[in-house]
Specification:
two-stranded parallel ribbon, globular, 14 helices, alpha/beta, 9 strands, D-Maltodextrin-Binding Protein, domain 2, 43% helix
Length: 338
């Protein structure tokens, strides 16, 4: 499914590119940003609310640059939008970045990450009282995650499985995973009546679930990976990046300002999130989530290669990058990444 999606998106992108006529060398006057759901996208939400891309573009002498925002559910929809020319920047996880880099490196549609967006864990929770570790799951359980085999959640589950049962059994639990959006998975799990009795969740969904009686934590992705790790990356095509260096610099500056704001003013950032998402949680609860010590809103790539090397070892990607820098644009090279 993933291979077909990438292939069809690349074909559509090639057709769109061939239909375009060369334009002036001026940079774009509209930046099209795509985001998904949840607190991993808090920097984007702050940037949108405070119009930080517009601010930094104007400071760079680019005039009145407009930023348009689209919310999409899941990495497949974001990837499709990027390669079809419907979005300039998307915010998927490391596995999606590695997959699209592997498929496009050296082609006219090459895609890389400009920066990381945050370090943040995924948390596997369940309502099955018999499950204390992943060793306790059986074929009667059903684990929801954003995309089977494709997302950081799926990779973290496989990495932990390889530790427990040996590398040759890394996919032992894949058969009981199911693709669902985080919102749908959380609703199903907390209802207590769905076949979905477990969820490898992103923030803030695991907070909601763990506050529900009868639901407990099984695994944190930091433990599976062996360290903190990047959750999301900001991805663009090389074609867009190379044609718009000042826009890219403005976007990086916007993320740095948003991250500094979040760290200095977690309550204000939580209020911006509440206003934007119409979240039902009290402000005090959201503030604690934003200020969680497990979370670092940073542009520095963290433990990217641990995830990518595992993906290469299991055959999920064909090319193995020599360094995390192979998958990023030069704007990130000065960061202390890994």
């Amino acid at each position: 499914m993933w291979r077909k999606l990438v292939a069809s998106a690349l074909i559509a992108a090639a057709i769109a590119a061939s239909a375009q006529t060369p334009s002036a060398f001026a940079e774009v006057t509209e930046v099209r940003m795509s985001k998904q759901f949840g607190l991993p996208y808090l920097p984007m939400i702050v940037i949108e609310a405070q119009q930080l891309i517009e601010k930094h573009a104007k400071a760079a002498g680019l005039g009145d640059v407009k930023t348009s925002w689209t919310q999409r559910a899941g990495p497949a929809a974001e990837l499709d939008a990027l390669l079809a020319g419907q979005a300039d920047f998307i915010g998927p996880g490391v596995p999606t970045l590695a997959t699209i880099w592997d498929k496009t490196a050296g082609t006219p549609q090459e895609a890389r990450a400009l920066i990381a967006m945050q370090s943040m864990p995924y948390v596997l929770v369940t309502r099955n009282p018999n499950v204390k570790t992943i060793k306790d799951f059986t074929d009667k359980d059903k684990i929801a995650l954003p995309a089977v085999k494709l997302t950081g959640h799926a990779i973290a589950l496989e990495m932990e499985s390889a530790k427990i049962w040996g590398f040759e059994h890394y996919d032992k639990l894949d058969s009981i995973t199911i693709t669902r959006s985080h919102a749908d998975a959380a609703a199903a799990l907390m209802s207590g009546v769905s076949e979905i009795n477990s969820h490898f969740a992103s923030s803030p969904f695991y907070y909601y679930e763990l506050a529900t009686p009868g639901i407990h934590q099984v695994l944190k992705s930091y433990d599976a990976v062996g360290s903190r790790h990047t959750n999301g990356t900001l991805v663009a095509t090389k074609k867009f990046h190379d044609a718009n260096p000042q826009i890219c610099a403005a976007v990086v500056a916007a993320f740095n300002e948003a991250n500094a704001f979040i760290k200095a003013h977690p309550r204000d950032a939580a209020q911006i999130y509440l206003t934007a998402t119409k979240d039902k949680n009290p402000l005090d609860a959201l503030e604690k989530m934003v200020a969680d010590p497990d979370v670092d809103y940073t542009t520095t790539p963290v433990a990217v290669m641990k995830i990518v090397e595992f993906m290469h070892k299991v055959g999920r990607i064909k090319k193995k990058p020599d360094s995390w820098k192979d998958m990023f644009f030069p704007e990130a090279y000065g960061l202390n990444g890994s």
